[in-house]
Specification:
Layout lengths: L1 H20 L1 E7 L9 E5 L10 E2 L1 E2 L5 E6 L4 E6 L9 E3 L3 E4 L2 E3 L13 E6 L9 E8 L10 E2 L1 E2 L5 E5 L3 E7 L9 E3 L3 E4 L2 E3 L10 E5 L13 E7 L4 E7 L5 E2 L5 E3 L8 E9 L5 E9 L14 E5 L26 H12 L5 E4 L3 E2 L5 H4 L6 E5 L6 H13 L3 E6 L28 H18 L3 E4 L7 H20 L9 E4 L5 H9 L10 E3 L1 H11 L16 H8 L9 E5 L8 H7 L8 H15 L5 E4 L35 H19 L1 H5 L1 E7 L3 E8 L2 E8 L5 E6 L4 E2 L6 E2 L5 E6 L3 E5 L1
Parallel strand pairs: 1-8, 10-17, 26-27, 26-35, 27-30, 30-31, 31-32, 32-33, 33-34, 34-35
Antiparallel strand pairs: 1-5, 2-3, 2-6, 4-5, 6-7, 8-9, 10-14, 11-12, 11-15, 13-14, 15-16, 17-18, 19-20, 20-23, 21-22, 21-24, 24-25, 28-29, 36-37, 37-38, 38-43, 39-42, 40-41
Helix pairs in contact: 2-4, 5-6, 8-9, 11-12
């Protein structure tokens, strides 16, 4: 017995020594925009951390390091104290990670020449002082500037030059006095003259031809979109011809060329040009265009997981506040303190943003005024909701919990007799404001920037965006970006995002026209709610509001793929945002019952919610959750518009205080787990998508982002389905942990009825 005890002790000591010998040393060099401590979140190995993970230690050379004892390999995410983060990474030995690349040895310090974008500009007439260059949305993350930007340096022949320590950027050349170019994009050294980019320095009198993209790069679906190329030739050039990839020569007719329609990201296409002049002199040039990853790649807008609160209906946190009147089943006693009291519960859902319906002074106690959508003072908080200090407490409290805050902007109409802004401006018009009056635009630009400056909000949801001309949106967006950039330059952690998402309750073409603007510059809004995909989602899993309409319910899963494919009409800067419902729509739970399906007493009611939430989680772009949906909320006995006197456009405005059950709590946990998964997997929110299969009840999508590949399978039917994925390795269910084995180069997966599955 004694010998056995000795052997056991020796075994334990040996094991402990072996464990102590294991050590995974990690080093990380963060982007310049990261502020505060760096942490590393570990999982899938001997250590599983709670987000945002273990604190790293900063060295004098800017590298952050952490020895992880007892671990030889792990999955990991470097993050900025939970705010910004890298992709999901793996490491099985000591490594240094910088700008998306692992190094086995500490790399040499990065030289300035490693990342330099040299831009030249020649104005039509020589100015009295050097022109400015204004730049933003640079990559890798780096400096931006405040309007009108930085002065350029004069060179020969009237050219001016400026060097940026980045690889690509959006820029505007201007004289600081109102004369400027359109918003431009550049990812290589370029010369801008006469509204065209050139890759080499052009001379006005010599023969030349040049080609450059007139649209930066494709949007979120680069495997389906093309590159539009603008050819520029000297005035003396005659008989300009081109050919693609050594194909036949064709005469150029003066219009932009559309190249690489079926090109995959990273693939290249060659364009040869030739021209002659009247003196029989010839010129030849070749250009190689690469199909790049979308400009949306890892864009912070796309990772937004927004929680919408209708303030007047939500929660009564202050008995002395509240309208006490309104539309819908709520007591309408909601106020800002009610929102403040709910912040911990909201943050626990693993969302990262909150959208508040309007809280500005409305000037009356009517149901219409209670909505907040008819303000009379855009610079004051309505006392029914609380004080300025209450609003500040909500914004600061949300930021302290890592939540962005978006206000609701009503920039197309108002409550009439609007009070002047702090600068003495007032808009013209009431039911539809008049943007032909310059004072109107200046007023709303002031509104948009004011709350970013004063409270540090992170952007705006804009009501009925189609009421505002897209040209005006371009200016308002610019005011938002400039106010956000100024805060970022001061080192602020929040109020730097500058997101704007519009409401255009129409089809994809109208959304492009009235919200995003077209493919041509200037850009309008960066975000717009994806009503077309939302309606396809409820038609597939429940029924749309007008249940009698053709195709209102029972639609095939393949319709979802078709709806997502419609995104190809959106310009490169577009960030469509998907929601399941909002304050103007019927709750998904009520639509399930309106479709004739069973209610909360039946498991399929909850399964349909889970399936819909999974589709949200797999969506490339921002997503929005309406308060109460996480609990499967619905209004008992409400089936058709007019039941109990409530209409479809306000029945979802019920109280945020609700009775919780085991089933509703389970649904909330499932959604929280989904949001956590989405936060950890950039392929879900940033990845390109490819439909592998779609029929009446099964949708199979492949999501790719860098080296990360995730398969999303949605079964909208009432029976289990199976699908065989071509794959050379086993696949793991990211929600349940179940491993599906590989056999003969494929993995056969079972998808339960009314469910979404995520595999990696």
């Amino acid at each position: 017995m004694r010998n056995l005890l000795i052997l056991f002790v020796l075994f334990v000591l040996t094991a402990c020594c072996f464990a102590q010998e294991k050590e995974l040393r990690l080093h990380f060099y963060p982007p310049d925009s990261w502020e505060g401590p760096v942490r590393v979140h570990l999982w899938g190995g001997a250590i599983q951390t709670e987000w945002p993970g273990m604190a790293m230690e900063r060295g004098s050379d800017g590298w952050w390091s952490l020895p992880v004892k007892g671990v030889s390999a792990s999955h990991l995410i470097f993050n900025n104290d939970g705010r910004q983060q890298t992709a999901d990474l793996e490491r099985d030995r000591e490594g240094w990670y910088r700008l998306g690349q692992w190094f086995d040895q500490k790399p040499a310090p990065q030289t300035e020449s490693a990342q330099k974008l040299r831009l030249y500009y020649r104005p039509e007439t020589q100015p009295d002082s050097p022109p400015n260059i204004y730049f933003w949305e640079v990559w890798p993350e780096g400096p931006s500037t405040s309007w009108p930007g930085e002065p350029m340096r004069r060179e020969e022949d009237g050219w001016y030059v400026f060097e940026l320590p980045v690889e690509r950027a959006n820029v505007i050349f201007n004289d600081g006095k109102g004369h400027q170019t359109a918003n431009l994009f550049r990812n290589q050294t370029g010369f801008f003259q006469e509204n065209h980019w050139f890759t080499t320095r052009p001379a006005r009198d010599e023969l030349f031809v040049d080609a450059s993209p007139s649209i930066a790069w494709p949007n979120a679906y680069p495997f389906e979109t093309s590159i539009k190329i603008q050819i520029q030739a000297a005035r003396s050039a005659k008989q300009v011809s081109y050919r693609l990839d050594q194909g036949p020569w064709k005469q150029w007719e003066g219009q932009p060329l559309t190249l690489g329609e079926k090109l995959l990201p990273g693939q290249k296409i060659r364009l040869d040009l030739k021209a002659e002049n009247d003196h029989k002199e010839s010129f030849n040039a070749s250009f190689l265009f690469e199909k790049a990853v979308s400009e949306r790649h890892r864009h912070p807008f796309d990772q937004l997981r927004i929680y919408q609160v209708m303030v007047e209906a939500f929660r009564d946190g202050d008995p002395g506040r509240g309208f006490g009147t309104g539309y819908g089943p709520s007591p309408h006693l909601g106020d800002l303190k009610g929102v403040l009291q709910a912040l911990d519960e909201i943050a626990a859902l693993n969302v990262n943003a909150i959208w508040l319906t309007p809280v500005f002074e409305s000037g009356s106690e009517t149901p219409l005024a209670a909505t907040g959508y008819f303000p009379t003072d855009y610079f004051a908080v309505d006392p029914h909701f609380g004080s300025f200090e209450d609003l500040k407490a909500v914004v600061d409290g949300a930021h302290a919990r890592g939540l962005y805050v978006f206000f609701d902007g009503v920039f197309g109409h108002n409550g009439g007799n609007v009070k002047p802004s702090p600068k003495g401006r007032r808009p013209k018009g009431r039911e539809l404001v008049d943007y032909t009056d310059p004072e109107t635009l200046e007023f709303y630009k002031e509104v948009a920037a004011y709350w970013i400056d004063v409270l540090g909000i992170d952007g705006w949801r804009v009501d009925q965006a189609y009421q505002v001309p897209v040209e005006a949106w371009a200016h308002i967006r610019e005011a938002v970006e400039q106010a956000s950039a100024a805060r970022q330059k001061r080192g602020e952690s929040f109020g730097t995002l500058g997101f704007m998402v519009g409401e255009v309750w129409k089809g994809a073409d109208e959304i492009r026209r009235d919200c995003f603007g077209g493919f041509e510059l200037p850009r309008a809004l960066p975000g717009c709610f994806d009503f077309p995909v939302r309606y396809r989602l409820v038609q597939t899993l429940a029924v749309q509001e007008h249940a009698e309409a053709p195709g209102a319910k029972g639609q095939p899963a393949s319709l979802l793929a078709e709806a997502l494919d419609a995104h190809r009409v959106y310009p490169p800067h577009a960030h469509p945002a998907l929601m399941l419902d909002n304050h103007d729509l019927v709750r998904f739970g009520d639509l399930i019952e309106r479709a004739g399906y069973l209610g909360p007493e039946d498991e399929t009611y909850w399964a349909r919610h889970r399936a819909a939430f999974s589709f949200l989680a797999a969506y490339t772009g921002p997503i929005s959750i309406y308060y109460g949906d996480e609990y499967g909320a619905q209004v008992p006995d409400f089936i058709n518009e007019g039941d109990k006197g409530w209409m479809d456009d306000h029945v979802s405005r019920d109280s945020g205080e609700r009775k919780k059950t085991a089933k509703s709590e389970a649904l909330r946990k499932y959604l929280a787990d989904l949001m956590k998964l989405r936060s950890q997997k950039p392929a879900l929110w940033s990845g390109s998508r490819k439909t592998l299969f779609a029929d009446d009840s099964l949708l199979v999508e492949e999501k790719n982002e860098g080296s990360e590949r995730i398969y999303y399978l949605l079964n909208t039917g009432l029976t289990e389905r199976s699908y065989q994925i071509t794959c050379k390795a086993a696949l793991k269910d990211l929600m349940t942990g179940k491993v599906w084995p590989e056999q003969g180069g494929s993995v056969k997966v079972g998808i339960p009825a009314l469910s979404g599955v995520f595999l990696e």
